[in-house]
Amino acid sequence: NLPGEFPYPIVADDNRDLAVSLGMIDPDEKDDAGMPLTCRAIFIIGPDKKLKLSMPYP
Q1: Residues whose CB is less than 8 angstroms from the CB of residue 54 and which lie 6 or more positions away in sequence, other chains included
Q2: For residue 36, is it within any domain?
Q3: Does 4 map to a domain?
Q4: Could you count the other beta carbons within 10 Å of the beta carbon of residue 24?
């Protein structure tokens, strides 16, 4: 439990549109519904809304 507001936004991407635009989709791995799975990754976006760090990892 955190008091006050959460310190950064959390984004839901149910249809994976954001994951596709950020290059997080693994086209060879699919879930039970046939949707491509995303890779695990960290994206840090600065206050200027520019990508500062992109780090995919297994």
Answers
A1: 22, 41, 42, 43
A2: yes
A3: no
A4: 19
